[in-house]
Specification:
This protein is of the alpha+beta class. It is built from 6 helices and 12 strands. It has 3 domains: about 55 residues; about 35 residues; about 180 residues, Sandwich (Jelly Rolls).
């Protein structure tokens, strides 16, 4: 009879322990479900907020003076857009530094600041570029040879390809002509610096023939032509031309003027490009004044 109460007590304690364990398990499960729901809600809210930042019409940039205050920098959307802007700028800068040499990069940024070079495939494209500059030569060698009836003007042959700012990268320079190794779209540019020296002479010797002193020099046009030569056609093909007629003051001892032109052209492998001017003897062949170049775009 004494064992019966003890047996009931043990059963009661066991039921209490089982109930406590069950309640604790239920509490843990409910807590887990609750926090999981909260985390899912926060994740969905954050995702929608990030997308809305990118899809917002008035995205804020670092150049916007109205958004550069403390209030703007505390905005999560402002921080997201700034990180994207910096990442894009860094990626584009790194890409252009690898594909374009420093000398040609300055030329591109001045003429085509928004030029985008796209890779045709995953294989690396060979770097093809050339920048040749004027080279001072004796007067006897500065005439550019005999005039060619197939082209206008006199060809400039005294180009420097190794010293100073000049360079050749997978391009040959032969007889004043750039020879490209492969077909593609090329950016070609040329600048010539004209210097007309007006020498004082007896006016009576020129009045009858020219009317006034130096009028024959002052009135002559300055011309620049850019040609290409292809193996399948005998006559060189004119790509660009530029002309200028300037009347300088009679009191000046010399006159200065520069002509620049550039463009994108399709060239084939082995094509040759060269520059002619109306009078080679009037060209100032300083490397920073007269230059000529080309590089492969695509």
């Amino acid at each position: 009879m004494v064992n019966m109460p003890n047996s009931h007590s043990m059963q009661y304690i066991g039921l209490m322990l089982l109930a406590a364990i069950l309640l604790q398990t239920i509490a843990v499960a409910v807590t887990f479900i609750y926090f999981n729901h909260v985390l899912s809600t926060m994740k969905e809210t954050f995702s929608k907020s990030s997308v809305s930042c990118l899809m917002r019409a008035n995205l804020r940039t670092a150049d916007d003076p109205e958004q550069n205050g403390e209030d703007g920098k505390d905005d999560p959307c402002w921080q997201v857009t700034q990180q994207l802007h910096f990442l894009i700028e860094k990626s584009m800068s790194s890409r252009y530094q690898k594909e374009i040499s420093s000398a040609v990069k300055d030329e591109v940024s001045r003429v085509l600041p928004s030029l985008v070079i796209q890779d045709q495939d995953d294989s690396p494209r060979p770097k093809i570029a050339a920048h040749v500059t004027g080279s001072y030569t004796p007067e006897a060698e500065k005439d550019g040879g005999l005039p060619n009836r197939k082209v206008y003007g006199q060809k400039i042959q005294a180009w420097q390809s190794e010293k100073g700012l000049a360079f050749l990268q997978n391009v040959e320079l032969s007889d004043g002509e750039l020879v490209v190794p492969q077909a593609g779209l090329y950016y070609i540019y040329s600048q010539t610096y004209f210097r007309h020296a007006l020498i004082e002479e007896d006016p009576s010797e020129h009045v009858e023939e020219f009317g006034t002193l130096g009028e024959s020099v002052r009135g002559k046009p300055m011309l620049q032509f850019v040609y290409k030569k292809v193996s399948s056609y005998v006559v060189p093909i004119l790509l660009m031309k530029n002309a200028r007629t300037t009347c300088w003051s009679r009191d000046t001892e010399y006159g200065l003027y520069s002509i620049y032109q550039a463009g994108l052209f399709q060239l084939g492998g082995g094509d040759r490009v060269f520059v002619t001017v109306s009078n080679v003897s009037t060209i100032d062949m300083d490397e920073k004044s007269s230059f000529f170049g080309a590089f492969l775009v695509s």
